[in-house]
Amino acid sequence: MIEIMIELINITKSFGDQTVLKQLNIQIEPHKTTAIIGASGSGKSTIFRILTGLETIDHGKILIDGAEVPHFKPPGFGYVIQDGGLFPHLTGQENIELAAKIQGLPLQDREKKTHELANLMSLPFDLLKKFPYQLSGGQKQRVALARSLFLDPHILLLDEPLGALDPIIRYDLQQELKEIFATLKKTVLLITHDLKEASYLSDVIHLIHQGKLLQTGTLKDFCETPYSPYVENFTKAYILGGQS
Amino acid sequence: MNLLTQIRLFLLLTIVFLTPNLVAKNIVVSSKPFTESRLLGEMLAQIIEDSTNHQVDRKIGLGQMAMLIEGMKAGEVDFYVDYTGTLAHALLKKPELKSIDSIKKEINLLGLDISNHLGFNNTYAIAMLEDNAAKLNIHSLQDLSKHPGLIAGFNTDFIKRNDGFPNLQKVYDLNFNEVKGVTHGLKVQALMSKKIDLAELYATDSKLAKYPLRVLKDEKNAFAEYYAVIVGRQDTIERYPDVWKNLQKIVGKISRKMMTNLNAQVEIDKKNEKEVVQQFLNTKAIASASYPDWFFRMLEHILLVFIPLLFSICIGIPLAIGAFYYKKIGKFILGGAAIVQTIPSIALLCFLIPLAGIGSPPAYIALILYGLLPIMQGTFVGLQSIDIKTLESAKTLGLSPTQNLIHIMLPIASRSIISGIKTSAIINVGTATLAAFIGAGGFGEFIVAGLNLYDIPLILSGAIPAAIFAVILHFGFDWLESLVVSRGLTRR
What we know:
heterodimer; A: 6-stranded mixed sheet; 4-stranded antiparallel sheet; globular; B: alpha/beta; D-Maltodextrin-Binding Protein, domain 2; MetI-like fold; 5-stranded mixed sheet; 3-stranded antiparallel sheet
């Protein structure tokens, strides 16, 4: 029996008269990397915003380990968005350590942990003394990832983490992320519009369209047994269209 | 004598010698009957009353010089104001004495003393209508010799006195077509209706302040000098040195223009003599050039800027934070502050007088109110312009709203907040100068005094330091910004 950690049951969410998520049902397995993929506007980011507590659901339930919760609570999760969301007035190191500092973790312990994470992210430590405006896109995303991991969350939510980066940097980071995920063994939820990236990084892919889950599986499953014409077209477009 | 008697005698003598010094005696201040002398006498009286423990017996307008001097000799008058020319000519009968030192030496022999002069020479002033003089290009008495066809109007005694018209004729070789005898009171009318071209007035004549007249230059110093000096009994001066010291306050401080203006306030504006003198002394024009008072005005101004600023910060920033979180009320709060800003400063100061009295309290309240809007706006805009992703990052990291405010929002908004505080501070420098109108002090004192007396250097002695203060604040806040605002934001 596969251990189910996170369940989204009949989630419905509307903004005004636009219904973004329609009775969405997803099950997320623990300690694996799960990708949520779909076209723009399909509702992917909304799922994350609901899980992180930035939006509330209209109908439905969220269960973690069988218990109903309104949303994930920090520090149980780490959240990285496309443009990092780094605090511009703090250095890289200060960004990473802020939550821990507020909670009272002493300086030495904080620095030790920052060093560990910097190594993991292949970030030279003195780069962390710089401010976000002085960092490249790839460096910022690494800092954002380190920040999200500082308090050892169970779940990692990454919303298009490589979306704003150059292709070469993106490629490098994909490699690194794969290694990091393997090392950490956390439950990782990844949103991407890139099917190839999803396939490379994740164990399972959920394809969303117009607020509904169309298919769950691997890239191979989507290619060989698409559940709907949309899935078929989507897959073809990404594989054959020379994307990424 | 035995010991007991000695002790009693000692005690008695002590009491006898101490008492006059402990019990302040009434000082008698007097003056001649004309306006200027009365005003100066009143000035001496008010200075003594305000700065010492002595009471003053006023005998203003007692009589001419002869009576006053006799009064002094008899010990019945202590101080009055006279003129160097009058003392030299009429009292000492030595018209050759010109300098104050020489007159002082002679007058000491009479048991009297004089101060240095008060700042103006109230000598004869030959005046013409400004446009008449301009048309004929007459600037000085010498120029008159080129225009023999003019009609002169003089007092009859000026026509006769040796140091009057005959003197003038001799020195400048003048001859007029017609010399009419015109009494003092009708001179200006006669000039204005062009019945006469020139007349003799006094240098501090009130009419010079109000009518378009040109005083002709006396390049050859034909007229004697009549510098105003304080005359005092040496006996009184020795007994009460603090009185004499305080009277020196006006020495060298009253210009011809100032005296003319004071005369005009009484003779033309019909103001009360006591009030005119009181206002003159209160505007601290007298002390304007002296270092200790300038220093205190500067301290007052600094306090007028910074204390209200601190209050504006403590009230404004929380209000703006509230406005940010509660957008609906927020609109009213910001709107309210904006409305206060539109009230003219001087009007607001006056509205506050019935509520807060005069002096510092209403000034501080007004400055606090004026300081609010820039600070509130700076804070509100600073918070509003924070990228929502940044705020959401804070939330998802587990920061509570308060922690978010303190660690993320206010630091990011700090640049805008400091900019608002800087604007408030600099506005305060200017508005604080108006505080002088309601008695709160500061550099505005000099500006107000200068306006009252039409003394431009005096106005500038307040305006320029205020401007320099504003510039210092500008650079000071820039420096503060570089210290407080993260380099990550300013990108230095």
